[in-house]
Amino acid sequence: MASDSAIDKILAGKYPAKKHADNVARYIRDAHPEIVDGLIYLESTKSALLEDNDSEAPFRQRRYFYYLSGCDLPDSYLTYSLGTSTLTLYIPPINPADVLWSGLPLSVEEARAKYDVDTVALSSPNLHADLSAFAAKSSPSGPIFAITGQVSDDIPHVVQGSLHTKILKKAIEDCRAIKDDYEVALIRKANLITALAHHKAMATVKKAGNERELEAVFTERCIANGAPKQAYHGIYGSGRAAATLHYVHNNQPLKGKLNLLLDAGAEYKNYASDVTRTFPISGTFSKESREIYELVLVMQKATMAESKAGTSWDHVHTVAHKVAIEGLLKLGILKGGTPEEIISARTSCAFLPHGLGHLLGMDTHDSGGNPNYKDEDPMFRYLRKRGVLRVGEVITVEPGLYFCEFIIRPYLEDPKHSKYIDKDVLDKYWDVGGVRIEDNILITENGYENLTTTAKEVEDMYKLING
């Protein structure tokens, strides 16, 4: 199993749910200083059976609930009293019929030992009684904070009348953006496992005949090393399919194609990794493929060097475009203008149409990034992080260059852009498909730390691919 003693030492402790709850409560108090008391109320994901099938549907815990509980049980609840700073976890009672099929559930005593909460109770009969008691004595200064759409219909009427649903979701999302040591350790662990899986895929690619074989070996390595869930639907795009940003098929033959773009990451105890590598199927890059790969690697190293606390992510993203333009001019794909003219025209968006990166945590595209998908500037429209970088944020750095006819063709037909693109030179690069290199970095007091350990230097990948 993927292991690092420093990581494992941190993860031997409890997930810091109480600290997270205290931070969220402080956020609410700062936003509403008039509130004397209040109760945070969250529900876990409910258990469910597959339609027309007597087996459980795949379970994914609600991230808001997990952040304040560290509990991965379905049909559970939590409250946090702002007045007493008490975090209470409510777990399901024993259902004798379920015990027959699934065994005994977690007991109150076991839950108290396992989770970082002040008290544990059975949801029945305690939950509704406790909520009703709080609502009965509450006033406008003591609401029950909840999230719209995440409150069961069967809660008592008196409780429904006390619900405040305008701030809790944003409070948790903003607090989640800054990771503590335990959360960083979870992401490190996910990255260690992901590196093993990427390396296995590289070592397999010359023998594989289809994209699905690589997805199989990647997933097997994750499961074998303690990460049974993927952080997202992986991308195993071969040849020109690598130019499709969120390619989903993963079932096409590899024969006759140059490269494979593999964008996949393990999820470890609800925390994500998100790593992309692009490598040659034959074991050696073609001339054009290596030119583009090395340019993207320069883009990534340049943008990482700019990634530090207090720096605007818009600026770092702009650096990626500037480096791309300079490199594409040297290759002759771009022509007839200065870098300043080309970036002003936004012609580089034909080759780099997405944002440089996004926050990472319990969700692959984690909360707190404040994107603006209505931005009229095409260079920033899909940037999932806006504003300055902050210490404690984990963010992906994933520059890429893509040769997708569907995207580039309109630029070739628009005189504003076509004057900067040499079509004859461009025609040599279509089979490269797309190249993306993606790492996960932690913003620190002194710059950044790369949490990703997957090989990306050309010679290192060659060694893995060619044995």
From TrEMBL:
Names of the cofactor(s): Mn(2+)
Domain Aminopeptidase P N-terminal: 15-153
EC code(s) of this entry: 3.4.11.9
Keywords: Aminopeptidase, Hydrolase, Manganese, Metal-binding, Metalloprotease, Protease
CDD domains per UniProt: Prolidase (cd01087)
InterPro entries, alphabetized: Aminopep_P_N, Creatin/AminoP/Spt16_N, Creatinase/aminopeptidase-like, Pept_M24, X-Pro_dipept-like
Signal peptide: none
Catalyzed chemical reaction(s): Release of any N-terminal amino acid, including proline, that is linked to proline, even from a dipeptide or tripeptide
Domain of life: Eukaryota
Enzyme class name: hydrolase
Family classification: Belongs to the peptidase M24B family.
Function: Catalyzes the removal of a penultimate prolyl residue from the N-termini of peptides.
Name of the protein in its database record: Xaa-Pro aminopeptidase
